[in-house]
Amino acid sequence: MAKEKVLIKIGGMHCAACAQTIEKALKKEAGISSANVNFATEKAIVEYDAHKVSLERIAEVIRESGYEPIGMPREGERTREISLKIAGMSCASCAATIEKALKRLEGVKSAHVNFATERATIEYDPSTVSILDLRKAVQDVGYIVESEEEVDKSVEEMEDARRRMIYAWAFTIPIILWMIPEMVLGIAWPNETVYNLGLILLAAPVLFWAGLPTFKSALKAILHRTANMDVLIMMGTTISFLTGPPTFFTSILNYSGVGGMIMSFHLTGRYFEAKAKGRASQAIRRLLKLEAKSARILVDGEEKEVPIQEVKVGDVMIVRPGEKIPTDGVVIEGESAVDESMATGESMPVRKRPGDEVIGATVNQEGLLKVKATRVGKDTFLAQVIKMVEECQGTKVPIQEFADKVTGYFVPTVLLIALTTFVMWMTIPDALIVVTRWANPIIPWVNLNQPLIMLAISATVATLVIACPCALGLATPTALMVGTGMGAERGILIRKGEAIQTMKEVKAIILDKTGTLTKGRPEVTDIVPLSGNPNDEDKILYYAASVEQGSEHPLGKAIVRKAHEKGISLDDPKMFKAIKGMGVKGYVNGVEVIVGKPSLSKSGVLSAGAEEIFRRLQEEAKTAMIVSVNGEAIGIIAVADTLKDDTVDAIRELESMGLKTVMLTGDNRKTAEAIAKRIGISDIYAEVMPDEKVEVVKRAQKKYGMVAMVGDGINDAPAITQANVGVAIGTGTDIAIEAGDIILVRGDLSSLVTAIKLSKATFKKIKQNLFWAFFYNTVAIPVAIFGLLHPVIAELCMATSSVSVVTNANLLRREKIRPSYLK
Fold it and tell me: Residue 446, by phi and psi: left (phi above 0), alpha (psi -120 to 50) or beta?
């Protein structure tokens, strides 16, 4: 089956039970192999067979469940929504002028210009009209577009939640003030009839205007034969409100004002929940805002500005100082420093020259660059990062599975408990009132003087509104959202949510030496003049580098590179010859130069002192070469794949965290032991062939238990996959990156330390949230059953519970995840 994966934004979800409803409906559809619906991110990740089910059908399944797949229009529609910040408007007629100009454009479905906010919201078909066309339409009627950005639905939702909360409290505060004299002094002012009528009239707009989305969501769920948290709130507030009219002709107390207060607290909880969820997902929004909207490309030798969607692979882009590089590419002309902090988290600019790769959305700081586009659209680095982070946020941590099962049965169970509570209070009140009577002296809102029917209603409503499936539904995904977002900001991409939980159990870290512990390319480490005169170093390097110019060997290139770095002018070698496994020789300025093993020189014998230096360098895991001129050994050059700057500090910190560090290398055991001793590695696997790496990981798993494998090459990919947690160095090949559960974009080991600390801190928050959610519901519901909670207090507890879970997740940002050796 050719599987495809799609990420869908879903509107209308109000609690974890909604997510469960959609997930079950999707999983029942033929052709869908897996579906994960995340209430916190309001997104679904669906894996499906395109031959059996279409995207339109998937969207329809979501709609049939009572929810709206945002960004997946009905068949034939392909629209986007954008917001333009417009300057120059002085009155409402200016807004009307711009609106007319935008609506005249073919492909614009709708346009609304708000004079007060100076923003235009436009829904358009990107295949027909571009962002540049929209900008031009505004400019042609005399106004300036300062910026544009995709419409953020979460901000709109938060604003709507805020408005409804304010409207609700505008009516609820008078209810509270009016109820105080009656509750404290027993006086219904100005009289009982006006008082009861006033509470009903004030509560009505709170429930049926401000709380209308809650009622719509509840009714929609009922029509689809499901139940969500809104059903509980609707039933609790409706029962409370319906006590109002009977007060005019029965002894029932008026709880309609209580219904209004419950809805106000519910809407307040919704607002703070939306606000906290917005903070949790801000990393994705920041990444989306980084994308360039247009590019200047060369067409027949002339510059032309085009929308970013029109840039093709092979186009040459002009990037001036201070501008974003529009898309991934390679520098073909110019030199500059580029700020890559958005990708790597590293604040220091990176020098770029012709031939160097650049990342789209990074900022050119100094010179003018000509960049040839190599990746566009969904293939760019930034697009892949956004995709990885979104997909990870949509995955589930294993510990979440039990919470999901509970959530699926939660609301129906609460409805059954509430019904049982009412029946018990009406039939066997004496069994329940024992506890209530005990609490009466210490809990001020417990009132045993009410009619039995009111005690039953109060306990039933409290049971309905205190239950909180949202806390269970938000516990894991909000912490995962914050953790993955923090990682992305630091150049750490977590591809799979389960890696966060598994990392907690890891006992050993296996590190491939080349490219992980080392820089991955040889460098000259020592130049030793055998004359004893340090001033002869440049002379030795001159002869060695000049002859090595004819070599293609990485060691020879390292010597030439060192000479260029020191500014030494070289001469071309004559009669150059490479001797396999031995070295090279040739003539430089008429003298014979030999670079290689001692046996390659004419005498083949070194002095005792030179022999000792040569042996010492080899014991330090360096490749030592003798430089001979006209048969006389004049110096020794040592080349090695040098350690990364932070390797020693990172290994020390990993060991201090209780992790065993294991080095995997193809070097001989003696060389491997020398490196391990130098950097403090606990264990080594030496002389490992590329195809043996998977077997080595299996042996390490038997020895240590759970292990993480860190590597960067193609031959590391199977071993990374075999490990319990695979960590790929992002500077390595694409195949190794694809195999990794965690990707380190920057490629240094401080990122590995940060990733491990971040994973552990994130999982700690997940556990805290789940514990609180289960504890709260386990304690709160029984307390409500026995009538120990006033319905308003119960709703306040529920609202606080879900907000506290999201707030705790956001506190992850305060955790110390930076390596201790970095000041």
Answer: beta
